[in-house]
Amino acid sequence: MNSVSSNPSFDFDSWASLARNNPQAFEIKRKITIEQAILQAAPQRQPRLRRLQWQLDQIRNTARTPLAASLRMQRMLWEKLAGDVGLLACLQGTAGPASSRRHTATILPFRD
Q: Which residues contact 89 (CB under 8 A, 6 or more apart)?
């Protein structure tokens, strides 16, 4: 069932089995894998990745269910991608503080 993966060494079924059968070992392996991924990033990016992982961990810790955590993480992802200061806005050159964004509109005169 590992046919769709950008990392051919990732075996979803074995991770799922570990999570079901030994949650403590799963959590240790998850943390080690995340740390290894962060360490592979450029040194100047590592602090930001650690902050992002901290945010994700807090979502997992405070969500009532894994599904709720997943939905909150998805919402966060979309905000970072398509929000006012997200990736798309940065690429389009429209990102910035709300006060610095230029809005244009046609002002219609009201008749007395």
A: 82, 83, 95
Q: Are 17 and 10 in contact (CB under 8 A)?
A: no
- Per domain, the residue ranges of the chain are 11-40, 44-78
Question: What pTM did the predictor assign?
Answer: 0.66
Check pLDDT > 50 for residue 5.
no
Nearest to 101 by CA among 88, 84, 86, 87: 84
Q: Which of 3, 5, 32 is nearest to 18 (CA)?
A: 32
Residue with tokens 């990745």: 49
One-character DSSP codes across 12-39: HHHHHHHHHH-HHHHHHHHHHHHHHHHH
Radius of gyration of the chain (CA): 21
Contact status, residue 27 vs residue 18, Cβ threshold 8 Å = no
Q: Phi and psi dihedrals of 99, rounded to 5?
A: -70, -20
